[in-house]
Design brief:
Radius of gyration: 61 Å
Number of helices: 4
Structural class: alpha+beta
Number of strands: 5
Order of helices and strands: HHHEEEEEH
Largest sheet: 5 strands, antiparallel
Length: about 260
């Protein structure tokens, strides 16, 4: 009986031990499973963090790109505003220039008829004046008329040449001037030295110094100069050419007729 009880106790102990061993094995399996799950969770966390890091980096890059675009936009806006101001200023200058051109055209409409009148007046003056370089002066008048018909010459240049011709006419009225030329008297062409004292007197002397003539502005004719004045005329011609010192001379004078 006692042996039976002991066997029963031993069997119960074995069953208990087996139960404990089974429980320990189950617990070990649970821990392993938990560790595996924890590892998987950790890996998932790592992957998630990597994704987060990647998204953060992308967002930073996008932010930098956005800021760059904003900066570029601001720069372009400033530049465009600058260019617009330049364009506005150029448009204003063009408008001003157009107004000036319109004004010049209006001025030309008044100046051109005036220039033709000035040329006509100059030609009349030369014809009525004593014949100092008359051919040369009439040629100048014709050149002015040719210039007026030349489309390649600007209005300002045309006006300049006309005023220059008037200045040349003024120069004939001052100083002692002598020059060599041809005098036609009684149908004969004679080589002479012309002399004029402004427009107060115009005379001529033959190159052999034996004959002299004076222009009568009342009759518009050449007249023989009295022999008494030949010496003074010779000296006057030399004075005009700066070949002798200035001196007082006695010469006849015919006042030039005023041009109407």
């Amino acid at each position: 009986m006692t042996k039976v009880i002991n066997k029963s106790k031993i069997a119960a102990a074995l069953v208990g031990a087996l139960a404990i061993a089974g429980s320990a094995t189950a617990a070990a399996q649970s821990i392993s499973t938990l560790q595996n799950e924890e590892a998987k969770t950790h890996e998932a966390d790592v992957r998630s963090q990597e994704k987060i890091n990647s998204l953060f980096e992308q967002s930073q890059e996008l932010l930098y790109e956005y800021r760059g675009i904003v900066d570029e936009y601001e720069q372009l806006k400033v530049y465009n505003d600058h260019v617009q101001r330049l364009v506005d200023d150029q448009n204003a200058q063009l408008a001003s220039l157009q107004r000036q051109i319109d004004s010049v055209e209006d001025t030309k409409q008044g100046v051109v008829p005036l220039m033709y009148k000035m040329i006509d007046a100059l030609e009349q003056f030369v014809k009525l004046d004593i014949p100092i370089h008359r051919d040369r002066r009439m040629d100048r008048v014709q050149r002015l008329r040719d210039v007026m018909e030349n489309s390649n010459v600007t209005t300002s240049e045309q006006f300049r040449q006309i005023t220059e011709a008037y200045q040349a006419e003024m120069d004939y009225g001052s100083g002692l001037i002598a020059y060599e030329g041809k005098l036609t008297f009684e149908g004969e062409e004679i080589s002479v030295d012309f002399f004029h004292l402004g427009r107060a007197a115009l005379m001529a002397q033959s190159l052999d110094l034996k004959n002299g003539w004076i222009y009568n502005s009342d009759t518009n004719e050449w007249e023989v100069l009295d022999d008494a004045y030949l010496g003074a005329l010779t000296k006057a011609i030399r004075m005009a050419r700066k070949q002798t010192a200035p001196d007082l001379l006695k010469l006849p004078i015919y006042a030039a007729e005023r041009a109407e």
